[in-house]
Amino acid sequence: MSDSTAPAPATNGETPRGNLTGFTRYFKHDITSGLLVFLIALPLCLGISLASGYPPIAGIFTAIIGSILTTFVSNSELTIKGPAAGLIVIAVGCINDFGGAGNSDAYKAALAVGVAAAVLQILFGLFRAGILGEFFPISAVHGMLAAIGVIIILKQIPFALGIVGAKGGPIEMARQIPHFISTANPAIAAIGVVSLIIMFVWPMLGKKYGILKRIPSPMVVLLVAVPMGMACDLLHKHSYTLSGHEYQLSEQYLVDMPDRVFGMFDEITFPNFNALAQLKAWKWAMMFFIIGSLESLLSAKAVDLLDPWKRKTSMDRDIIAVGCGNLCSAMIGGLPMISEIVRSKANIDNGARTRFADMWHGVFLLLCVAIFPMILHRIPLAALAAMLVYTGSRLAHPNEFIHVYRIGKEQLAIFLTTLIIVLVEDLLVGVAAGILLKMIIHVANGVPLKSLFKPYLEVEEVNADTSMIIARESAVFSNWIPFRRQIEQIGLVQRRNLIVDVSNAQLVDHSVMEKLEEMQRDFEQEGLTFEVR
After folding, report:
1. Nearest CA among 48, 98, 62, 59 for reference residue 272
2. CA distance 450 to 444
3. Whose CA, among 120, 181, 369, 389, lies 20 to 30 Å from 133?
4. pLDDT tens, 361-389?
5. Residue 254: which residues within 8 A CB-CB, separation 6 or more?
6. How many CB atoms lie within 10 A of CB 402?
7. What's the half-sphere exposure (Cβ side, CA atoms, 13 Å) at 230?
8. Which residues contact 220 (CB under 8 A, 6 or more apart)?
9. What string of H, E and C letters represents the secondary structure of 68-121?
10. Which parts of 162-262 fold into alpha helices (H)?
11. pLDDT digits (tens, 9 = 90+) for 126-152
């Protein structure tokens, strides 16, 4: 898809809304975008599900429920809800902890964990705790996402090369890459490599030839990879010889899908709630809850910035919607979901007007998987793995490292610390390490301990409609939440223009500066002025 945000089209000066009037008025735009997003979502849902250790149909269940149910719960007009690459690491870790991929007991235990995490998300939103997403420092969050990208790449390389049964942590998998390449199945590796080339090259061609960017690269991959799989006759078990080596081909290299119309409904699986009696289940539930909620909040905020009409999402309501979607999804065998940024941006670029575009993409998924599962069975796993390698490369792109370095060496240290600890340990430990390092750096830079979590603010009245907030001591990520509440109360609630003076603070960190820029946009949307000194 294009990297540029779609310009706001003419709507007679009205802001499109996802109500009955919007459903009929923008039907053509929304159903068209829904169809195009469906073409992207279908292979990604299958790939993410397989990479997570769940049956491939689980990702479809998630996307269908996420799109149809949350459309009527969230007030976000353009976010697409569904399975996301960012949760693969947690999902596969949970499955492995309970017995591993292919183990039905592990799958049912993971579903119970998903239900527990969903209930926590719903409570999180009901108690208006969405603002807690503001606590995490930006460098640590980006370090976490980059680490997730690296793990996805390492885990999917064997599948793209036709290696069966590869196991191990990220570091071990990295060490085995030369072995994977030397023992690759050439026919399957050809499908994987061609698919990967298409994923990288097609967006470049789309920039050069505008008409091509309307065709999603994942769909182009399928149009090439499925015929390649048919040419290899993957539906039937057989062997072939190349350079004196014999290689096996069979259905194990294809997506496992129901073999009849409406067979997807036979795949519905219910959670085993006995698993929640084990302490380790709650470790994974907390990880799904914290990381899933954080990713959802970040995605919803990003989509608000991309929205041509600058409509504002209620973060608490959006988390409730995601929690409700996760609850229903886990109850029938689905993956965890979030508000997903890549498909949401595609939704915007494709001209969606209201939340019904999300609904239509789910309707198309339901119809396709219910009626044509035999066709989906022909998709090679190597093609899906290539799509995920590309997704991982976007999360861990070298530009991320360069961008953080340009902000400052301290931010790079936090970014790299989070990334490395996530790779060596796990997500929560990595994020905690990034937060701890940031606090240590702040204290070393002269931030008083008393102001690490509590901002010292003075409020002055400048004139009849303008107030000033003066920050003393420090304005850093760890005391931002009460700082933000003060800004919202005086400015947005009391409808006053606001000046925020941080010139006398000992330290103002990068996270707070970015969040102040976000606040400036919020004030502009309300017709108020917001100045930072």
Report:
1. 98
2. 14
3. 389
4. 999 999 999 999 999 999 999 999 999 99
5. 229, 234, 235, 377, 378, 379, 380, 381
6. 10
7. 10
8. 198, 202
9. HCHHHCCCCCCCEEECCHHHHHHHHHHHHHCCCCCCHHHHHHHHHHHHHHHHHH
10. 170-175, 177-182, 186-208, 217-231
11. 988 767 777 888 889 899 999 999 999
Q: What is the dihedral of CA 323, 325, 330, 331, to 10 degrees?
A: 110
- The contacts of residue 326 (CB under 8 Å, 6+ apart) are 114, 115, 117, 118, 121, 292, 336, 337
More confident residue, 210 or 473: 473
pTM of the predicted protein model: 0.88
Label residue 36 by pLDDT band (50, 70, 90). very high
Q: Quick one: which of 282, 207, 259 has its CA closest to 57?
A: 259
Angle among Cα 232, 234, 238 to the nearest 5 degrees reads 85
- Helix axis angle, 409-424 relative to 398-407, nearest 10°? 140
Question: pLDDT category, 417, cuts 50, 70, 90?
Answer: very high
Positive or negative: CA dihedral 278, 284, 287, 289: negative
Helix H or strand E encompassing 450: none
| Amino acid identity for residue 291 in this structure | I
Element (H, E) at 148: helix 138-161
Averaged pLDDT, 407-434:
91
Mean pLDDT on 64-70: 94
CA atoms of 34 and 13, how far apart (whole Å): 24
Question: Is the pLDDT reported for residue 123 higher than 60?
Answer: yes
In the block, residue with structure tokens 């229903």: 328
Single-letter amino acid code for the residue at 281? A
Contact 486/453 with Cβ under 8 angstroms?
A: no
Q: Which residues have CB under 8 Å from 387's CB, separation 6+?
A: 43, 44, 47, 195, 199, 218, 221
Max Cα–Cα distance, the chain, nearest Å: 87
Q: Could you give the C-alpha distances from 147 to 5, 171, 179, 283, 519, in angstroms and in order?
A: 27, 12, 23, 20, 29
169, burial (CB in 10 Å: exposed 0-12, middle 13-18, buried 19+): middle
**Per-residue model confidence (pLDDT) at position 12:** 62
pLDDT of res. 427? 85
Band the pLDDT of 10: cuts 50, 70, 90.
Answer: low
What mean pLDDT value characterizes the chain?
Answer: 91
Q: Is the pLDDT of residue 29 over 90?
A: yes
Whether the per-residue pLDDT at 342 is higher than 90: the answer is no
Phi, psi of 64 (to 5 degrees): -65, -50
- C-alpha distances in Å from residue 467, one per residue of 16, 232, 525: 33, 71, 18
